[in-house]
Amino acid sequence: MLFLAADGRCTHCGIELQPSWHGDHITPYSAGGATDIINGQALCPTCNLKKGRSVVNGARGWQNQAHEKFFANPTKDYLVSATPGAGKTYFALNLAKRLMQERTTERIIVVVPTDALRLQWADAAGSIGLHLMPVTDPEDYGKPGYQGYVVTYAQVARGIGSEKLRYLTRRPTVALLDEIHHAGQNKSWGEGLTHALEHAVHRIALTGTPWRKDGASPIPFVRYDRDGKVEVDYAYEYGTAVADGVCRRIEFHAYDGEAKWTDCGKISTAALGGELADDDVPAALDAVLEPNHKWIPALLAQANTALDELRTEVQDAGGLVVAHEKWHARAYANLLRQLTGEPPTVVLSDDPEAKENIDRFRGGRSKWLVAVRMVSEGVDIPRLAVGVYATKIRTPLFFRQVVGRFVRIRKDEEFNARLFIPAIPSIMQHGRAIEEELRHQLEIESDRVERVRESSDSRGGMLDLRIPLDATEAVFDRAIVDGDEVTPAEVAKAAAWLRANGIPSTYAVNAARGLRSAPTAVAVAEKHMTTPAPAPPRHRAERMLRGEIDTLVGKLAYRRGMPKKDVNLQLIREGWPSRSKATVEQLRRQKSHLMQILGRSEG
């Protein structure tokens, strides 16, 4: 009935529904929404999965615990280490929102590693009712109508950015520092950040994995232990996240092979999994990662086979190859094109369309993405399921950042991701460390379940003399749904009706309840099927309004036979602020004013 009510098309995007279409709750089941025709809609898998991950439905347990620990003793600096995919963004934004509600702070400053993350954080803030401006030019700092601003570490390192933020923090401010280790990439970044946020009331730092001290580029606002390892105030590790169902489990598939190289005219050979000297590891990796040698083409073929197998169950599952150099990425993309018959998406740091290509891959169904560092952190592509670690970078921080691309879960999916890695001992050790965290946490969870089972055993060890001998086949008696009972006859009738209309009979129980009130059920379902689209974040609304006003100014200039700049100048003379400085409300009034002028001229 959902299928028919939607006229066989996705309620959100309108594409024709395929046999794998999803039945979705309009009001989420977790929020008390009924499993009923009236509260249902027919969606394509892509729209349903996007809907499921667009907003975190309630704070996860670890987020509540981290909040409680902070508010029990609100310190100026607070460092949280949480595995990628666990929800650090929403943890920090909700903490900042609470500080503003309690009037402890009046402003939010978010500092992120990349330009793309400025928009992601601003959008995430908008989904929980916070308006943050992603800063692109100096006029954006302090713009009215916003509760805070999102900048990059590079912007803070420059003089004007550091001074602007320092000026803004005259009002009580909470600073959220995403992937704080980036502040140590060079000395100027750390110094600029320290100067800019010296007077912030709270500085909440976030990281995906702890790191060790770098004497050349110390990282501000963090503490280190005697061994030089950063000390965190709250940690939520990968093993715990998997046990909690927050992250997906990942398998590490290590591949050995023999590498041959020359060193000052001397030919050397070694197995990747052997006892390689540290100095020989880069040479061995150079040999096996060479696209024209046999090792990497064979590894890509194995990974592609694994992805094909998974796509029989998860049709949009994707793969990621992390390459070391740009020329490697292009060559690997060519090898994958030969294997699959379709060109992979290639993302390079100097490509102006890199972000658009990542966004296109995220929402598409193509198989492979090949990148050089571009998706190491901060990029959310939950359909990634198979990876190839084809880089010489062997630091645990980078390795865990790559692993983080594969652990994000989607609703109603249960599978292990796979990461194909070279059998270099140091790289395998990173994988073992992650698996050890997982094994330890799962053992803890298993022990807890066993204790609960033992404590609830009501038989108390009594001898049971009853011996099972036989049983007849199970026969369907009734279905109980939301306190309602559906008879076998009703289910059989509904199943026949679904099959006749080309709809899977899996939904027979719910359809039986809807058919009781047919033919009005479809009409009622149609009435409730479409939900209003959520309002865009303020910064996106502002950008759209600027574009609309620019179009209206162009039309007015054309009708008056004058340049656009003269029309803009006339608007400023009339008292309208320049569009770059105008608030959303001022832009809306200006748009309405221009539409009235154009309407009169048409009359």
Keywords:
603 residues; 7-stranded parallel sheet; 21 helices; 6-stranded parallel sheet
Describe the structure.
This protein is an alpha/beta fold. The strands form 6 sheets. A 7-stranded parallel sheet has the order 5-6-4-7-8-3-11. A 6-stranded parallel sheet has the order 12-19-18-15-17-16, sandwiched between helices. Helix 7 packs parallel to helix 8 (187-196), helix 11 (295-311) crosses helix 12 and helix 19 crosses helix 20. The chain starts with a helix and ends with a helix. Residues 52-59, 456-486 and 519-531 have low confidence and may be disordered.
**Can you count the helices?**
21
Question: Radius of gyration, Cα only, in angstroms?
Answer: 29 Å
Name the overall outline.
globular
User: Quick one: how many beta strands?
Assistant: 21
End-to-end gap: 48 Å
Q: Into which percent range does the helicity of residues fall?
A: 40-55%
Largest sheet: 7 strands, parallel
How large is the share of residues in beta strands? 15-25%
